[in-house]
Amino acid sequence: MKATIMYGAGDVRVETVPDPIISEPTDAIVRVVRACVCGSDLHPYHSMPASEKGTPMGHELIGVVEEIGSAVTTLQRGDFVVAPFAYQDNTCAICRDGFQTSCPHGGFYGTPEVGGLQAEFARIPQADGSLVVVPGVDESSDLLPSLLSLSDVYLTGHHAAHMGRVSAGTTVTVIGDGAVGLSAVLASRRLGAERIILMGRHTARTDLGREFGATDVVAERGDEGIAAVLELTGGEGSHVVLEAVGHLPAYEQSYGIVRPGGVISRVGVPQYEEAPVGFGSLFGKNVTLTGGPAPVRAYLEAAIREVLDGEIDPGRVFDRTVGLDDIPAAYAAMDAREALKVMVAF
Amino acid sequence: MKATIMYGAGDVRVETVPDPIISEPTDAIVRVVRACVCGSDLHPYHSMPASEKGTPMGHELIGVVEEIGSAVTTLQRGDFVVAPFAYQDNTCAICRDGFQTSCPHGGFYGTPEVGGLQAEFARIPQADGSLVVVPGVDESSDLLPSLLSLSDVYLTGHHAAHMGRVSAGTTVTVIGDGAVGLSAVLASRRLGAERIILMGRHTARTDLGREFGATDVVAERGDEGIAAVLELTGGEGSHVVLEAVGHLPAYEQSYGIVRPGGVISRVGVPQYEEAPVGFGSLFGKNVTLTGGPAPVRAYLEAAIREVLDGEIDPGRVFDRTVGLDDIPAAYAAMDAREALKVMVAF
User: Fold this and answer.
1) In CATH, what number is assigned to the domain containing residue B189?
2) Domains identified in chain A, total number
3) pLDDT band at residue A184, thresholds of 50, 70 and 90?
4) Looking at the structure, do residues A144 and A263 belong to the same domain, yes or no?
């Protein structure tokens, strides 16, 4: 089959590799119908050291179950499924807490053993815990983009809002007008936020943000951006800040605009390890810092229902579709901000 | 009057200074009945640069209202009161949120204008918002230590537990066997924690911790301490970690023992500004970091009622009482860990 391998920064190739096989009785093999490129794929696209071996890429898919291991009980060949971007057993104590991305029997795609999902076929470990069947949908559905968005991007935005305790009456500020940031806007609206301030400077994106529910857009960054949000909030700051970027300046912006006692919820994968947390940043004003890799599995059934019922249309973040051979160009287009998020059709 | 002034690290003096006066119509003057030395006073005791001017010390008191400004409406001369360690109007939007330590019209004691509370008399700004009357109590009450503890230490421990969302069924680990840590144990028990692991190595203190509700004591620190807590929690870690120290190693210990999706709540004033918050510490396992200066005022009426009703006895953290002239020795005794927390009687 064909699969996507990154050999170093800027070096993405589509190559022929062996088809995945059932390695464990709990595995399933899925034929990929749609995959996509994630904002987080751009981090190694900038920084991965060159290697001869390469790393299999991709962690989002919708597809059709082709084969199941002998221990799989909830799936059958032909089922149309969404795969969360991480796999998990979904039965252990940590999964039952709703933090499936920390499942001790789970893991992430993109290793030599498990492979990536920007490929024609995918091996899904812990298939019973990881794949969720979408009833009544096939490859011709108009809902494919929105269903694909549930694999990661929309439910990552939802996780940000959920961990930020967004509710009716909340003022939310979303930092970042990428696909996750826009998803966080949509999720905040669904959770009843009274006011949603979107910080971003790409008009095409912030326009979609307004359609998703943003009530204000702030194009300034840094100190100017902080001043603008404080002015919009009567000097008090935002109850909740959803940080959907992952770079340190966005974090610093977050504690500048959060209200005393408020919450900063991060879902942009931090490209830093150390950051201010002391009296002058978080502690002095009792700010709560939360967030992490979204336990998509925890939210998936409810979100599938919302998509099937037409209540949300998170697939609008996809503004380009390519075939598998054009994945390298998809990375380049997202990196150049020519495309917001690229879907791959097989 | 006599008041306590710190002139540099290790240099605490009791001196005669002018009596405080009503400067604003919202002020009150309180005659101090009991004050005390705080663990946070030990930070400048270690690090304050020497100065000729000095800094007035103390931020905890119970006492009797001597005089009120013309705008004060809820107090009268002779009222027996508790003063939270910060002053606030208790009417603004931030105070109504329950984060009075960030009141834009409030502040902290120990400035040249406001003075400190380790003194015979104290000026209390925003007196209506800051002083809470204790009905039916006078200077002869056996409850004075517990009432004094509500000025800071017990309600700081309570704030840690409250922000950590301690509730029935929670496993809590408290780092630090100082007076705040022991208070956090007692508050966690009040909030219904199922299991309370106290990390500390001073047996006299951890024994009081057990009486306050600790179910387990871990004397090890660092990696050994982390391993011990993980073993006690079946490898999963603690739902909530209450960090009552303020030094970086305690913070690092916190993210080592917190369960995925759990909460670290800090009330030890951080003696650092930068700390790990990225994928390898907080983000990767969806840890929430919270806490800050306790908005004691938010919790004060309920806690006074609990003390008057005999439901809690947080004053047991005081293990020594001195007169005003012996305050320098009180600092030294707490610094040498000869005393847990020293009360000052006037």
Assistant:
1) 3.40.50.720
2) 2
3) very high
4) no
